[in-house]
Write a structure and sequence with these properties.
Layout: H1 6-9, H2 24-33, H3 37-46, H4 55-62, H5 67-76, E1 81-85, E2 88-92, H6 95-107, H7 111-129, H8 138-147, H9 149-161, H10 165-181, H11 185-196, H12 206-221, H13 225-242, H14 245-261, H15 265-281, H16 285-301, H17 306-323, H18 326-343, H19 346-363, H20 366-382, H21 386-403, H22 406-422
Antiparallel strand pairs: 1-2
């Protein structure tokens, strides 16, 4: 309780202390009064950041062309801290210092203005980052988003509290792939459901359709298949109504993947082929590769046509390598590896599976790493290498428990049971 009121409890009982040394608040007020008006203004506006910032963000939020000089001055007063990173200098404040700044900002009646500037900046940042999460710069942008995750949370929270439904939907939609890739599944789901329930968010817009689509995938990764279908169908309905052909293609592919998962292979083929035709119409290479991957799964499981499945996966993988999307290279390589195992080409399959695992570990994609580990364990089991199978499935199980994927937990336990049985450990 007391730690929630640092300015009240951090008080000296020594009567001979100077006034400014008798409490944290007195020390902060003494330091603040010594700042010039410009420094006071910048200090207060910087308090809206959560988890640090860089000079570019500070310049935008503080609207100050001399921001580097201001930051240097505030650092010399020990009000701002610095941290040298691989991407350059980042700045931050101790939480108690930041809270004092927020109080002062409210007194100046400038908090709303500063938070709106902060929201505008991080909305633009998230929308700039989104397409770069699917390409050669993927890892860099994942790390950049992770570094500013506190600010993105603050921006979302402000957009919701102010009822800015359109901006909240845009920000939520831009962050969906980041949440999925970094396995922030429960958090992403919570933000998505809050934003979709916000007054004004019920309007049938592109932004709502995109947020529904992202929420559907977060639901799937959390093991909620019913919500996945409902959200994708709602998204597709809006996109067809608006004539958003690129969005329609995306929703069709996702629904095709869901149909495959639920063993409705006829629907899966029809949905994926319709999506592929649309992607070919506007020559969307990433979408074409994705649709081919979906059709590869249909060929594999529906017709057990391994030759066609291999051809689809190989074409998809070639396009993803051309694009340089590490996450999708990892996924498609894993898909192709499963077909090659079935065809008896274990050497090539292991090479692809090792690549898939390495890429997922590099990007930090825990959910899809668990899927590759499942494939690794299943392949090892088929080859009679039970120790390797056990290790892969145990790591897979640990990740599934970590992210709360209940269906994944059940599957991993089932596989570990099979391994134990094969080893004679019936208990």
């Amino acid at each position: 309780k007391g730690l929630e009121r640092p300015f009240e409890i951090l008080v000296s009982r020594q009567r001979d202390d100077e006034p400014r040394h008798r409490s944290l608040r007195a020390a902060m007020e003494w330091s603040y009064r010594l700042l010039s008006p410009d420094l006071q203004r910048v200090f207060c506006r910087l308090s809206v950041f959560r988890g640090g910032w860089d000079a570019e963000a500070a310049a935008a939020v503080c609207d100050d062309q001399q921001i580097l000089e201001r930051l240097e001055d505030l650092t010399s007063w020990s009000l701002v801290r610095t941290d040298e990173t691989a991407r350059g200098m980042r700045f931050g404040m101790l939480e108690t210092v930041r809270e004092y700044g927020v109080e002062r900002l409210a007194e100046l009646a400038k908090e709303k203005d500063a938070r709106n500037s902060h929201l505008d900046y991080f909305l633009a940042f998230a929308e700039e980052a989104e397409p770069k999460l699917r390409g050669p710069d993927q890892l860099e942008w994942i790390q950049r988003l992770e570094s500013d995750h506190g600010n993105l949370r603050a921006a979302l929270d402000w957009s919701i509290s102010e009822g800015k439904s359109g901006i909240a939907l845009r920000l939520c939609g831009a962050l969906q792939w980041f949440w999925c890739t970094r396995t922030h599944l429960s958090e992403g789901w919570d933000w998505s459901t809050r934003v979709l329930a916000l007054a004004g968010s019920e309007l049938r817009t592109r932004e709502r359709a995109k947020a529904l689509c992202g929420a559907a995938e977060l639901a799937w990764m959390r093991g909620d298949t019913a919500s996945r279908r409902a959200y994708h169908e709602a998204s597709l309905s809006i996109r067809r109504e608006m004539g958003d052909r690129r969005g329609i293609a995306e929703s069709l592919n996702y629904l095709g993947g869901l149909a495959t998962f639920q063993h409705d292979y006829a629907s899966a083929r029809a949905l994926s082929e319709e999506g592929l035709a649309l992607y070919r119409d506007f020559d969307d290479r990433w979408g074409i590769a994705w649709s081919l991957c979906s059709l590869g799964w249909v060929a594999h499981f529906l017709e057990y046509d391994l030759v066609s499945a291999r051809a689809s996966f190989e074409e998809s993988l070639a396009i993803m390598r051309e694009i340089g999307d590490g996450t999708e290279i990892a996924w498609t390589a894993g898909c192709l590896a499963n077909v090659l195992f079935a065809l008896g080409d274990s050497a090539s399959a292991h090479t692809l599976l090792d690549e898939s695992l390495a890429l997922y570990r590099e990007t930090g994609d825990r959910f899809f790493l668990s899927l590759s580990l499942w494939s690794e364990g299943t392949a090892a089991y088929g080859e009679g290498d039970y120790e390797r199978a056990r290790a892969a499935h145990e790591e897979c199980l640990a990740i599934k428990r970590e992210i709360g994927d209940r269906l994944g937990i059940a599957n991993a336990l089932d596989e570990l049971g099979a391994v134990a049985s094969a080893q004679g450990d019936f208990e």
